[in-house]
Design brief:
Layout: H1 16-28, H2 33-42, H3 49-70, E1 77-87, E2 90-99, E3 104-110, H4 115-129, E4 135-138, H5 142-151, E5 156-159, H6 165-169, H7 172-180, H8 187-203, H9 212-230
Parallel strand pairs: 1-4, 4-5
Antiparallel strand pairs: 1-2, 2-3
Pfam families: DDE_Tnp_IS240
GO molecular function, one term: DNA binding
Protein name: Transposase
Length: about 240
């Protein structure tokens, strides 16, 4: 493995390739910090799980921000959904928006499931995306309609549980991570982790109906872009 000395990793004992690979493993797959530690140890790289956690905290959001800038513009059909998560014994709600292609647009962890919470999500989406959708699809929660009438009055709103499978399915990776992590420790931790996790998933997501050659080509492009984002060469 060739080591890259990128200024982003100044004063770090390990080279860019090791740090970026550890961060990729942690956010890309349903792995605990100790699992990542063991996978690195299998390559002869001895780091503690706490070091991996610190790398994820320091570099994860920056990588996610760069991924967001490289993704294509959001589709014109937004699917919104919310799912309950337990944090420190209290009920919270994870609000998520995806477009018709399955790309996660944004997430928001909140303690309420009401119109005020729905408005916060819509405002955040509009600020991040810079555009309004043609259609908004939700379940029959009345809070969505109230928020839409105030924030995006001209957008078509379809409320039907059967139409919103795309948003509901996007919660499944979160459920897997929640089990591996033995639940999130705080709302802030959940927000920070999922904000990075979903963007990394977007970047390496490939449509299921494409052929093997196309998937390999798309994956190679994603790895090349990841190397550019992290300032590291691929780990061999």
């Amino acid at each position: 493995m060739n080591s890259t000395h990128h200024p982003r990793y100044a004063r770090h004992r390990f080279p860019a390739e090791v740090i970026s690979h550890a961060v990729w493993l942690y956010f890309r797959f349903p792995l605990s910090l100790r699992m990542v530690e063991e996978m690195l140890a299998a390559r002869g790289i001895l780091v503690s799980h706490e070091t991996v956690r610190q790398w994820a905290l320091k570099f994860g959001q920056d990588f996610a921000n760069q991924i967001r800038r490289r993704l294509p513009a959001a589709g014109d059909k937004w699917h919104l959904d919310e799912v309950v998560i337990s944090i420190a014994g209290r009920k919270h709600w994870l609000w998520r928006a995806v477009d018709q292609h399955g790309i996660v647009l944004d997430i928001l962890v909140q303690s309420r499931r009401n119109a005020k919470a729905a408005k916060r999500l819509l405002r955040k989406l509009l600020k991040k995306q810079g555009i309004t959708p043609r259609v908004m699809i939700t379940d029959k929660l009345a809070s969505y309609g109230a928020a839409k009438r105030e924030i995006m009055p001209g957008v078509e709103h379809r409320q039907h549980k059967g139409l919103n499978n795309r948003a509901e399915n996007s919660h499944q990776p979160t459920r897997r991570r929640e089990r591996i992590m033995k639940r999130f420790k705080s709302a802030g931790q959940a927000q920070r982790f999922l904000s990075v996790h979903d963007q990394v998933a977007n970047f390496f997501r490939h449509p299921a109906n494409t052929g093997a050659a196309d998937r390999r080509f798309a994956r190679a492009r994603a790895f090349q872009a990841w190397s550019e984002i992290t300032g590291a060469v691929a780990v061999a």
